[in-house]
Amino acid sequence: IAHSCCCTFAMRCLFVVLTVCTLVSEAKRAIVDDTGDEDPALATSKEQVRALDGDWSCVRVEGDFPSFLKAMRVNWFVRKVASRIKFGVGHTSQYLQLVDRNAKLLVERKSAVFPHKKQLFTLDGTPNPIKGVDGMDRTLVATWDNGVIVADVSDGIHVRIFVNADHELVWECTKSDI
């Protein structure tokens, strides 16, 4: 998906950016057996879980990242640093692991430039407290939707995490800016 910026008469812009990662190594854990004990809303196939779990390295970004970061109110200095390191390409990796019978997602982000970050999110639609890129408190609500993790953040960012047909992990982030 290429970046898209569409403006309407109300001057609303939709920023779409993608972070694409390749699998470095699979998660070191046994895949949970789908025995039917879990909430059907959280159920996902073993293949979908296996596809997400692992250590992923950022190989490319797509979209207008400078405008996206500006719309997120990321300060000028951090935007300049992000631009210099090509928005994480070759410098950032993420470890993903589904835990607690696929009801939670552990995300561990490692970067050569930015602080190491580890967070655990529930995937059942309950609010999760998080820190935004600007350090401010936010709330994230995440769910499973047909093998895709869908999350909405209180600052207007919508995230979809999935593995594409080329076996790449894609973080698709959109933000409407008024």
Automatic annotation (TrEMBL):
<protein>
    <submittedName>
        <fullName>Uncharacterized protein</fullName>
    </submittedName>
</protein>
<feature type="signal peptide">
    <location>
        <begin position="1"/>
        <end position="29"/>
    </location>
</feature>
<keyword id="KW-0732">Signal</keyword>
<dbReference type="InterPro" id="IPR012674">
    <property type="entry name" value="Calycin"/>
</dbReference>
